[in-house]
Amino acid sequence: MTSAPPRRRRRRLLLWSVAAVVAAFIVLGATAAVLVARVERELERPRGTETIELTIERGAPVTSILDQLTAAGVIGDPLMARLHLDYRRPGETLQAGEYRFEQPMSTVDALDRVIRGEVVTYPVTVVEGLTLRETAERLASEGFGELDAFLAAMASPALIADLDPAAESLEGYLFPDTYAFPRGTGEADIVEAMVRNFRRRVEEHLDAASGQGLDLRSLVTLASIVEKEAGAIEERPLVAAVFHNRLTRGIGLYADPTIIYALKMAGTWDGNLRRRDLELDSPYNTYVHPGLPPGPICSPGEHSLRAAAQPADVAYLYFVSRNDGTHVFAETLAEHNRNVARWQVRYWRERRAAER
Q1: Residue 346 DSSP label
Q2: Hey, which residues does 125 pair with through a beta bridge?
Q3: Cα separation of 226 and 221, whole Å?
Q4: Model pTM?
Q5: pLDDT class for 33, splitting at 50, 70, 90?
Q6: Is 206 helix (H, G, I), strand (E, B) or coil?
Q7: Distance (Å, rounded) from C-alpha 126 to C-alpha 36?
């Protein structure tokens, strides 16, 4: 029997070698697939029963973060977690910050949370009608930063200069709302978030305000006076209408809150408005100077902005407090004087008599 020619024999050996390599890859591939499937099942298995809180430091390497998560009981195996990151989430980074993991939670879910940077946030409510300084004091007292740093960030009008070139600070432009910030958020970042919220919320009122002859600064200034004058939400369009009507007729606004603001700026406000204060030499004294004051006197909320942009269609020029948060409105001075006699002079006389 003759042997195969050398060339044919070499070709056969080459084919056998290729077949062996392919078979080996098939076996290895099947083994790898089984291994990957086993790892994925382990990573997706919920673990633990307690809520775990920890802080990942800025700049910590991935290996250290995975070791930290393992030591805290958030994940089970740092090597499996690293394989998941390398092969399932390539290019993703683990974010620094304070985290809360509510167990049971799988390793995959825990890593997703850190990749997305879903850090713990803390709420703070800034109510309507606060001045710039009062807002800074509120944020500082709640532990969100230092008072002086807040005041410095709020003193610069840069964040609102494109909308209000005349602004000298952020007075009136720190939107009152409930916010949530991660621990360690800088004062400037918090201020920027409040101004960003204002810009978003005021936009819907600008067209209506323009129809009333108000630019942004005039809108916010008028809304800030409405905010301080009107307690009841349903009365704000009526209070705004009074001021609109007085502005149109060139009548002074005679708004006590503007004088109070001037006294606060001067550092002389003690909680009592006296008759002599009505003659205060200040551009914010609307008893002396007709028209709107130079700028906002506080941060108005949504209802006051809407009222200033869309006042009620009424002819009122006056209002007086009923001493319960609501007001009595009048079109004429004679009617207003009767209301003052009833709700101020007689009301307080009767109250003092009842207390004796």
Answers
A1: I
A2: 178
A3: 9
A4: 0.81
A5: low
A6: helix
A7: 51
Instruction: Return the percent helix, strand and coil in the chain, to nearest 5.
Output: 55, 10, 35
Helical spans, DSSP H, in the chain: 6-43, 62-71, 78-88, 107-116, 132-141, 147-155, 187-202, 206-211, 216-229, 236-249, 256-266, 302-309, 333-340, 347-355
Q: Which range has the worst mean pLDDT, 1-5, 42-46, 249-253, 326-330?
A: 1-5
All domains in the chain, ordered by first residue: 51-119 (3.30.1490.480), 122-202 (no CATH), 213-355 (no CATH)
Q: Where do we find the tokens 């207003």?
A: 336
Which residues in 236-275 are b (16+ Cβ under 10 Å) and which e? bbbbbbbbbbbbeeeeebbbbbbbbbbbbeeeeeeeeeee
Beta bridge pairs of residue 123: 180
Tell me the CB-side half-sphere exposure of residue 179, using CA atoms within 13 A.
25
